């Protein structure tokens, strides 16, 4: 899992941007930077405001979407016997 600073940097967002946008303290952001998990509410708000996917912020809760062009095994058509 990538650390919070790396995730933000990959999206050209600073910790201060997050702090101001969410109206939270620097201490709250500092906890996330030290590895403490953010709330689901905060993750969803960051996703909405900065377009950072929720699964990057909290991979322990959300899985990444399937890769484009790949289908789930259950969606594969079954072969018919001739």
Mean pLDDT metric: 87
* Helix vs. strand class: mainly alpha
Task: Assign a percent range to the helix content.
Answer: 40-55%
The CATH topology comes to 434 Repressor (Amino-terminal Domain)
Radius of gyration: 18 Å
What is the C-level CATH assignment?
Answer: Mainly Alpha
Approximate strand percentage: under 5%
Overall tally of domains: 1
Q: Helix and strand succession?
A: HHHHH
Largest sheet data: none
Task: Sum up the overall morphology in one term.
Answer: elongated
Per DSSP E runs of 2 or more residues, the count of β-strands stands at 0
* CATH superfamily membership: lambda repressor-like DNA-binding domains
How many helices? Answer: 5
Second rung of CATH, namely the architecture = Orthogonal Bundle
Which residues form runs of ≥5 with pLDDT under 50?
Answer: none
Question: Termini separation (Å)?
Answer: 48 Å
Account of the 3D structure:
- The protein is mainly α and 82 residues long.
- It has a single domain (4-63), classed as Orthogonal Bundle (434 Repressor (Amino-terminal Domain)).
- It has helices at residues 4-10, 15-22, 26-33, 40-50, 54-57.
- The longest helix has 11 residues, at 40-50.
- The protein is elongated.
- The mean pLDDT is 87.
Outline of this structure?
This protein has helices at 4-10, 15-22, 26-33, 40-50, 54-57. The protein has five helices and no strands.
Characteristics:
434 Repressor (Amino-terminal Domain), mainly alpha, 5 helices, 46% helix, elongated, 82 residues
């Amino acid at each position: 899992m990538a650390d919070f600073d790396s995730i933000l940097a990959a999206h050209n967002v600073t910790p201060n941007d997050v702090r101001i946008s969410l109206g939270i303290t620097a201490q709250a952001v500092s906890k996330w930077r030290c590895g403490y998990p953010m709330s689901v509410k905060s993750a969803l708000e960051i996703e909405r405001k900065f377009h950072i996917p929720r699964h990057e912020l909290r991979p322990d809760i959300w899985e990444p979407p399937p890769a484009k062009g790949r289908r789930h095994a259950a969606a594969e058509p079954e072969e018919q016997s001739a």
